[in-house]
Amino acid sequence: MKILIIGLGSIAKKHIAAIRSIESNASIYALRSQHNAQAYDGITNLYSFDEASNIGFDFAIISNPTSEHKHTIQKLLEFKIPLFIEKPVASSPIDDLINSIKESRILTYVACNLRFLEVMQFLKERVESGNTPGRINEVNVYCGSYLPEWRPGTDFRESYSAKPEMGGGVHLDLIHEFDYICWIFGVPERHKAFCRSKSSLAIDAIDYAKYLLFYEDFTCDITLNYFRRDYKREIEILFDTVTWKMDLAKNSITNSNGVVIFQSEQSVADTYTGQMRYFFDLVSNSEKDSFNDIIFANEILKLCLDYERP
Questions:
Q1: pLDDT top residue among 218 and 54
Q2: pLDDT tens digit string along 221-232?
Q3: How many domains does the chain have?
Q4: Do 205 and 135 share a structural domain?
Q5: 302 in a domain, yes or no?
Q6: Same domain for 106 and 155
Q7: % of residues, the chain, pLDDT over 70
Q8: Which among 77, 93, 100, 112 is most buried, taking Cβ atoms within 10 Å?
Q9: In this predicted model, what pLDDT tens digit does every residue of 178-190 receive, in sequence order?
Q10: What are phi and psi of 189, to 5 degrees?
Q11: Same domain membership, residue 260 and residue 125
């Protein structure tokens, strides 16, 4: 199997590790922007799309800065190969590409690896089957972490996350939360959102985001930030009989009576392998659709970008 990777940063290296755990003999090529780029772990460097076009890849991974995704997708559509696109799909909506993507009938998958977290899959199954403790009255989602600790040994102010012109901002970096809520509960009837960049981090990119999603029977509150020193990533679901507290870091659900509803030893890091195996299976079976294709991801992006800046 031959795989092309666009962008060779930290997330790309996680995808490479996942690929090699599944198919150790895969030939991996990386499209590099600088001709003096250092070789990485047996990966073949390429320096232009023209050079890459003659190789015959089984699929491509797009993991360069978000602001470059749209151009990269346009170039790779000419290759007519499946596309594995790191989230978010782009830094702005790509409506003008959707018809070309539909006409190409290529497989697309936008990588939201938290869908592969076992506690998330447990919740989705319970909600879809109706096997819950009662009616949902409220859902609260919170994800707070400390951006300066995301990439040890680097200046966080120089990362793409801190630079809006590169597609940075907590609303895009943590689009996972918006994605999995829409995956589990569906797209909301309407929503309201506020985003700011006023914290002590002193960065230009959005560092705080608040979304209110309105469903027929309940409201979902999503809060995201870059400045919380003690990492917290949780979902709270208020049923009419009991509350479930879902801890994504611990891969567990506990109810308000202290009863453990679900617990898994799987780590978030493990989801990258599960996600890649899912995509490998789609490619191997010549599938044309995924459960998070570029069309759905573009709709989620438009919702995330529909906010006010008070």
A1: 218
A2: 999 999 999 999
A3: 2
A4: yes
A5: no
A6: no
A7: 100
A8: 112
A9: 999 999 999 999 9
A10: -65, -40
A11: yes
Domain holding 23, by residue range, is 2-113+273-293
On the question of pLDDT at 35 being above 90, the answer is: no
pLDDT confidence of residue 31: 95
Residues whose CB is less than 8 angstroms from the CB of residue 221 and which lie 6 or more positions away in sequence, other chains included: 138, 139, 140, 141, 210, 211, 212, 213
- Predicted local distance difference test score (pLDDT) of residue 39: 82
Query: Using one digit for the tens of pLDDT, what is the confidence trace for 112-151?
Result: 999 999 999 999 999 999 999 999 999 999 999 999 999 9
CATH number of the domain to which 205 belongs? 3.30.360.10
Largest CA distance in the chain: 62
Say what the pLDDT of residue 37 is.
Answer: 79
DSSP track, the chain: -EEEEE--SHHHHHHHHHHHHH-TT-EEEEE-SSTTPPP-TTPEEE--HHHHTTT--SEEEE-S-GGGHHHHHHHHHTTT--EEEESSS-SS--HHHHHHHHHHT--EEEE-GGGGSHHHHHHHHHHHHT-SSS-EEEEEEEEEEEGGGTSTTS-GGGSGGG-GGGT-SHHHHTHHHHHHHHHHH-S-SEEEEEEE--STT--SS--EEEEEEE-SS-EEEEEEESEEEEEEEEEEEEESS-EEEEETTTTEEEETTS-EEEE----GGGHHHHHHHHHHHHHHTT----TT-HHHHHHHHHHHT--B--
Task: Provide the pLDDT for residue 310.
Answer: 86
Residue type, 130: G
Burial string for 80-117 (b: 16+ CB within 10 Å, else e) reads ebbbbbbbbbbbbebeebeeebeebebbbbbbbbbbbb
- Both structure tokens of 274: 């599960």
